[in-house]
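Researcher: Let's try something more involved. This one mixes different molecule types, so please make sure each is placed in the same coordinate frame as the others.
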Amino acid sequence: MAGAQTDEAAEAVRGPAWDPVVRLTHWGIAAAVLLNGLLTEGGEAAHVWIGWAAFALLALRVVWGFAGPEEARFSAFPPSLSAARGHVSDVLAGRRRTHRSHDPLGALMTYALWSVLAVVVATGIAMEGGPFPEPGEAASVAFVSAATADEVGEEADDDHDEAGEGEEDEALEEVHEAAANLLLILAALHVAGVALESRRFGVNLVGPMIDGRRRGP
Amino acid sequence: MSRRAVRAAGRAGASGRPFALAALLVVQTLCAVFFAADVAADLSWNGLSLHAGFEAVVALALAVGVALGAVEMRRTLERSRRADAAAQAASGAFAALMEERFEAWGLTPAEAEVALFALKGLDVAEIAAVRGAAAGTVRAQLAKVYAKAGVSGRGQLVSSFIEALLDGPLPGARRAAGRPEAAG
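Model: All components are placed in one shared frame. Result:
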């Protein structure tokens, strides 16, 4: 059995060669999450625009999950707790099994990242609305410089308070922040997981996500 | 020049066209989402107007364009993967054929290497430079290769391989080969 598997294993151990759409959406979303999570401030025009861009990239990745090549399709990495458990026991036992797309644990992480990102995006849109400022009151919010963004943002919040939307907005903001923090933690775990699997197989798994080419073991 | 050509041919598999297509798809999606968001905002502030309705149609067309672009992108990827696989199979077949012949001709390892470089299109001076040998040595080795293979020179050596590879699977080649017979 081991003999029959060797060839396939040698091919698949290197991991999938990711196509350009997967690569662009992956790094685009990674950049958007880092920028909005660590650099820009909520309410700032840049924050809103980057959030919308992340939404667009996520949407494209979902379309690609149905229309893309085999290893990019959702059917290639279905979310399965039992498969993930099997993968964990593989890791603990030092077994190396081959996967044509994400490994089962990586697949769960992928879906977790996407769903949390969807929550962040949805709450963000609920708070800020479209990427273009409303003609009336919020026009100032989008086009102020970064230096005064906080101040104006607070004023805008006050306006909402008067309109009686304060509680709802506060709840949205809390969910938005909690989900964003969770997203950053998941992203860190994701990086750690990739590092662990790369070490375990002695293969650079990051390379194929950068240039789409497989690395030999 | 020929060495560079060989290396370039090896790299041609990972072409930049799918990447450019994918980048275009990403830009298209960004446009579609931003446009759709703008239309949604317009509709919620001002209700349905001719302007907003027209914009909604444009946004819808953009979204359909993204979906069709994705399908087209998949086709392009699959086509280039099939071509890569075919090229790999062909080069694998050629390598197997070469090994088999070199063995049948009883080439020494040094002669086999010189023959391989000759097949790749390197001239005597280039082979000598690659192997760090004198041009005279290479010329003598090549002469031995041609003698053992029973060919008159490099041209015939190359055509003997091409003939073997074209044997059989190409109906066009067989028809062309049959014509002179019919005439004679």
